[in-house]
Write a structure and sequence with these properties.
The complex is a heterotetramer of chains A (353), B (324), C (296) and D (247). Chain A has 353 residues and is of the alpha/beta class. Chain A is built from 14 helices and 15 strands. By secondary structure, chain D is of the alpha/beta class. In chain D, helix 6 links the parallel strand 7 and strand 8. Chain D is globular and about 50 Å long. Chains in contact: A-B, A-C, B-C, B-D, C-D.
């Protein structure tokens, strides 16, 4: 009776399989992701989308924040247009799979650089230079009387699931032999919700995020970030490991942002500096850096003037920091370890030679 | 039931309702801070769609709402009624064109799609894919050919055993692993495909129920008229079966709309996802109740409108009515 | 004719196998390309993360396998409790819809209309963040203590995450069950109502002893699929921080990067859970239908 | 002779203004067998269903065994009447999920709070009386229609009612099964039970009825003793009806 339907089914199946029939082989994976991005003319950038100061949706519908500006800097360098970025909001658990599956080209999502994420035997990623030195901390209600980790013994602690945050928390408490109850949420937004509603005695996250969250509270003074720092969290962008062109390009775009700050090149003066360098052949290092003398960009597979493109679109590292995390921003975080090395911080760029 | 008991229950319920009603009203008017809703209205509607292009998704939604109202009020003029189904079908390509751009409009990537627009698109897109696939699976499951029957049954049963979120997880993160390197399926499309693959299994069972409700005499009656098996299926059996299955198909459609919210867990910024992003804005931290109530109202309206439309369709297709 | 049928079947089988082979080939290539093999050795490694709720003793130094087992037990716990409560609520609301009290009837109708048109995920978020985390700390009598840390009930200590998932699933599934029960009750011939009334039996007793038992055969298959839905929907617990199977799998996949293996384990666990529920319901169904068949 | 049921000017309308009962007045004496006849849709079923409150009234009043029922009566009165008035339906309406014995003992145990053993003893006696004692542990669907209807009679009798209502008890039966049910009813009448019977069985009416009431369009057309009714009906409408029934 349903012979006719079986014919339809066969046709459907044939269609589906021909669609998938571009049979996979190892050879087709040879090219660098960087070439793919340039060919596409657009960067697929994985962000959180839910972290104040780093990446969140502003009412005009655009993603903004430090992580987002890193994406924009990359796009400016790779395809000469900082707006050619497609943002992909990612939850913590899915970010590495998204990177590995090719869903995104580059991950700029508050990700801590660790050994197991880096190593071939682990997640096999390639991390860029640190864009924000953070450390995990605990925030408690100031009136609760909790002053140290030991005071939290046996208490409930709100934490984001599947992150290093969760593991660090466990390490910190286990090493001191303290019991605790982790209440795990999917994102910081929910962690804050649980904490503010009084589900937990403390919430834990990177201290930058604690500060960012606290800035939004109706009574910030009522909450205190504990002195104990339970981890170091160097946050860095990442790409798939084993893809050197892509990894190098990423690394040197970040370095360029730092170098530009060291040299005092800003969004406002970059064009003037370029003009001045072009007129002054004695400024060899500056001319190389800005691509007035060609050579460096080409080695990375980028345009020679990629640094100029980047600074024009986002400004230098200090400008990016101030825009999103500086004293006048909604989420004011003292710059601390994220100052330039010359000013007592940890930010330093290897030479552009 | 005793009349006094009856009165007692009524009074108790009235007191409870009155108290609840008063507290809710008081909160709505005095306690709530609706700025989280009012400031972000465009975001709920269209997500991070470029601000100067927002008129496109808004236009599409306005067209959908107009069409819904027009259909439900039941226009009297014959020509309007004749054209309505065609206009409904045209809404899908229209929506895609308005959102994606091209043909004279500025192209906008799917990553910028969000909010209610994305919710509706996910629902419509996956529904349109799932229905034919579900019908095929239902026919396959009733086929005389064992291979066809077994494979359809295996697919249906497997899909129905798995939680939707696992299927979506598969769609978002694992499908790329099954594709040749370099072949990328767009993220929204992947969500639509995952939803469709899931919903098709449920639709197949509903359609099978409809097929079973058609007495064999109908087939015999059609066959003795000289119709080919395909014609019997197309002209006699399927139309009746689908009409029988329509109420449960309606439930599936409403379920599909509601379930698009699960994409929020997987990071797509549809209606619920965009709201969770908004709640991360320092200005709005902690305004759950307002946002959730607002979302509930939007979902409730959308789902009810869909159910009403389906009921309308049921009435339209009722043979008793079309005979008169 | 026969040959042709055979040919068609062989063709379909070949297509299906070919498709499957293609997908597996792609998977293998992709796994090699990204430097990951397939294997389950990692299941024995220490999980390194703590869980808030454990039915059996668990420490972060225990293996991933044990962590997943704990998650599975947590799922089972909320599903079992949900099944019981949702059935109770659903039957009550379904029966209320054929009650004589108009207010009760319309309240039940309102409950069903409201709950069924709002996504479960949204409802769960509401129950957790608004209702349960908003609880003031109040002791009720000496036996029940409510607070946003948890609920103590006659010595039973329930976390608010568990309660939110349980209440959310119960209220959502209860509305669907109410519709099924109402349909089943309506399917019982009016003569049965008249018969028990003419014998002087009250409405409640008649509903319990005469109508519901007869509605059961019509109710049971639909009820089974609602039970399965409840079990599957329990995975949304991840959104409110309850450590169910899906949440633990999620954490495990993130930490180990073993997406395929983790997903396969998740699938297997759910197949098992489904078999448990549908097997149990089938046995119950047989018992009920057996009784009715004897009576036929 | 005392009155068991007194109906005064009963009115019952359905939607669209159709009057199922249009000013019905009658009396049924204790120990009397009243047979109600009439074409379908004449309101006879509606009438006896008002006697135990299965149909509510829009006007008029009923006095059933000293309990008053009218348009505004309370549930309590209805419950009171139902304990004392038995009813047998056209479709038997046995509870399919309960055994024959359970069908019969349910109400005595639950409504009258009788001991289980006593209720079962009484049920077995009634089944004996109906000639179907050996069916006690079967389920309704395993019995023939005639047997089922006799179980239904036994079920009604188990409450020791003072009045029995029969709503076309033989209409759903195969012709060869009709007799066994009528025999059981005949026996009941002989025992002095007050009975109101809606039926088309002319033979039964002629033989057992004390009075025959003829209804049409919600009104009582005539009430006579069976002899007069069947041989010499007063009203033209009755005669026409009888004519149709006999040919």
């Amino acid at each position: 009776m349903f012979r006719s339907s079986s014919r339809v089914l066969i046709v459907a199946l044939a269609g589906l399989s021909s669609f998938l029939a571009s049979c996979a082989s190892l050879d087709s994976a040879a090219g660098s992701r960087l070439d793919l991005v340039k060919a596409r003319g657009e960067l697929l950038c994985g962000v959180s989308g839910k972290i104040p100061g780093f990446s969140f949706l502003s009412p005009d519908g655009r993603y903004t924040g430090l992580d987002v500006d890193i994406c924009r800097a990359m796009a400016a360098a790779f395809v000469s247009d900082a707006e050619k970025v497609q943002y992909r909001p990612l939850t913590a658990p899915e970010r590495f799979t998204a990177l590995r599956s090719g869903e995104i080209d580059l991950l700029s999502r508050n990700t801590t650089h660790t050994l197991s994420r880096d190593a071939v035997g682990g997640n096999g990623l390639r991390f860029g230079p640190v864009v924000f030195h953070d450390g995990q901390g605990l925030m408690v209600n100031a009136a609760s009387g909790v002053r140290s980790l030991a005071d939290l013994s046996g208490k409930a602690i709100c934490v984001g699931s599947g992150t290093t945050t969760e593991q660090n928390l466990n390490d910190a408490f286990a090493s001191k032999g303290l019991p605790y109850t982790p209440i795990k949420y999917q994102d910081l937004n929910q962690v804050v919700g649980g904490y503010l509603q009084g589900r937990c005695a403390a919430m834990t996250s990177d201290r930058s995020q604690l500060a960012a969250a606290r800035s939004g509270f109706s009574d910030p003074q009522a909450h205190q970030i504990l002195y104990d720092r339970i981890s170091k969290e160097p946050l860095a962008p990442a790409v798939v490991g084993g893809d050197q062109p892509m990894g190098d390009a990423m690394t040197w775009v970040i370095n360029a942002l730092i170098e530009a700050e060291e040299r005092g090149i800003t969004q406002a003066n970059v064009d003037a500096v370029v003009k001045q360098a072009a007129a002054d052949p004695s400024q060899t290092a500056l001319r190389r850096f800005l691509g007035v003398d060609p050579g460096l960009g080409r080695k990375l597979g980028l345009a020679d003037d990629f640094v100029v493109q980047v600074i024009r679109s986002t400004g230098n590292y200090g400008e990016i920091y101030n825009r999103h995390l500086g004293p006048d921003s909604a989420v004011a975080i003292p710059r601390g370890a994220n100052r330039l090395a010359g000013e007592g911080g940890l930010m330093i760029s290897p030479p552009f030679t | 039931m005793n009349r006094w008991l009856d009165r007692g229950i009524t009074l108790l319920l009235l007191a409870l309702l009155g108290w609840a009603g008063w507290s809710i009203l008081h909160w709505l008017l005095v306690g709530a801070d609706w700025s989280v809703v009012t400031t972000n209205l465009p975001l709920y509607a269209v997500g991070s769609f470029p601000a100067d292009q927002r008129w496109r998704p808004l236009l599409w939604m306005a067209a959908l709402i107009t069409l819904t109202l027009l259909t439900l009020t039941g226009p009297k003029r014959g020509w309007v009624r004749r054209w309505l189904p065609l206009v409904w079908i045209a809404m899908a390509p229209l929506g895609l064109w308005l959102l994606a751009g091209g043909l004279g409009l500025l192209p906008v990537g799917t990553r910028s799609w969000g909010g209610l627009t994305l919710t509706l698109l996910l629902t419509g897109g996956s529904g349109a894919l799932a229905l034919p696939l579900g019908i095929l699976l239902a026919l396959g499951r009733r086929s005389e050919l064992p291979v066809l029957r077994w494979s359809s049954a295996a697919y249906i049963e497997l899909m129905r055993a798995v939680p939707l979120i696992a299927v979506l997880f598969f769609g978002q993160l694992l499908i790329p692993l099954f594709l040749p390197p370099g072949l990328e399926i767009n993220r929204v499309l992947r969500a639509v495909v995952a939803f469709a693959l899931f919903a098709a299994a449920y639709i197949a069972e509903d359609v099978r129920g409809g097929l079973q409700a058609i007495p064999p005499t109908q087939r015999e009656a059609a066959a003795v008229l000289g119709l080919s098996p395909r014609q019997v299926l197309q002209l006699v059996v399927l139309p009746q079966a689908l009409r029988v299955a329509l109420p449960s198909l309606t439930n599936q459609a409403v379920g599909l709309l509601q379930n698009t919210s699960l994409m929020a867990i997987l990071g797509l910024v549809e209606l619920l996802g965009i709201s969770r992003s908004l709640l991360a804005n320092p200005a709005f931290i902690g305004r759950y109740l307002e946002v959730y109530l607002w979302l509930a109202a939007v979902y409730w309206l959308a789902c009810s409108a869909m159910a009403l439309l389906a009921r309308h369709l049921e009435v339209q297709l009722d043979p008793a009515r079309s005979a008169s | 004719m026969r040959q042709r049928r055979l040919l068609v079947q062989v063709g379909v089988a070949a297509l299906l196998i070919g498709l499957l082979a293609l997908l597996v080939n792609n998977l293998a290539v992709n796994l090699i390309r990204t430097g990951l093999g397939l294997g389950f050795g990692w299941l024995g490694r220490p999980a390194g993360f703590a869980l808030a709720e454990t039915a059996l003793p668990y420490a972060p130094s225990d293996s991933y396998l044990w962590a997943l087992t704990i998650g599975w037990l947590n799922s089972l716990k909320v599903i079992a409790a949900g099944l019981v409560l949702a059935t109770g609520l659903g039957v009550a609301a379904g029966a209320a819809r054929s009650s004589n009290n108009r207010l009760l009837r319309s309240l039940a109708a309102g409950y069903v209309a409201l709950i069924r048109q709002v996504p479960l995920l949204l409802q769960l978020l509401f129950w957790y963040f608004v209702a349960f985390l908003g609880l003031p700390s109040v002791p009720i009598g000496g036996l029940i203590r409510l607070s946003n840390q948890g609920i103590q009930l006659l010595g039973l200590n329930l976390s608010v995450e568990f309660c939110a998932v349980l209440v959310g699933l119960t209220v959502f599934t209860g509305a669907s069950i109410a519709e099924i029960v109402r349909g089943g009750i309506n399917a019982v011939p009016r003569g049965q109502w008249e018969a028990f009334r003419s014998l002087g039996l009250g409405e409640g007793l008649g509903l319990r002893r005469i109508v519901l038992p007869q509605a059961l055969p019509a109710i049971l298959p639909a009820l089974t699929s609602q039970y399965l839905n409840l079990a599957k929907n329990s995975t949304l617990a991840i959104a409110v921080g309850y450590a169910d199977l899906y949440a633990v799998s999620d954490t495990t996949i993130t930490q180990t990067g073993r997406a395929i293996e983790g997903f396969l384990l998740l699938l297997l666990s759910f197949l098992l859970l489904n078999l448990l529920i549908s097997g149990g319901m089938a046995a119950f169904n047989r018992a009920v239908l057996g009784r009715l068949n004897r009576s036929r | 002779m005392t009155v068991a049921i007194r109906a005064t000017d009963l009115v019952k309308s359905y939607s669209q203004g159709v009057r199922a009962l249009d000013g019905v007045t009658l009396e049924v004496n204790r120990g009397e067998v009243l047979v109600v006849m009439g074409p379908s849709g004449s309101g006879k079923s509606t009438l006896i269903r008002t006697f135990n409150g299965l149909e509510s009234l829009d006007g008029g009043a009923l006095d059933v065994l000293g309990v008053r029922l009218d348009a505004t009566h309370a549930e309590r009165q209805v419950r009171e009447i139902r304990k004392r008035v038995g009813m047998v339906f056209q479709q038997f309406n046995l509870f399919p999920h309960l055994s024959i014995l359970d069908n019969i003992t349910l109400a005595p145990i639950k409504v009258q709070q009788r001991a289980k053993a006593a209720a079962e003893q009484r049920a077995m006696d009634l089944l004996d009386q109906m000639g179907i004692r050996e069916q006690a542990h079967k389920y309704p669907a395993q019995l023939s229609g005639g047997q089922q209807q006799r179980v239904a009679i036994a079920r009604a009798l188990a409450l020791d009612p003072e009045v029995m209502l029969f709503d076309e008890p033989t209409s759903a039966l195969d012709p060869e099964r009709v007799k066994e049910v009528l025999d059981a009813m005949r026996q009941l009448a002989k025992g002095g039970m007050t009975m109101v019977v809606v039926t088309h069985e002319l033979g039964f009416a002629r033989e057992v009825a004390d009075r025959v009431m003829f209804m049409d369009r919600g009104q009582v057309v005539e009430t006579s003793d069976p002899e007069t009714f069947f041989s010499n009906a007063r009203e033209e409408r009755s005669r026409r009806f009888l004519n149709q029934m006999q040919h």
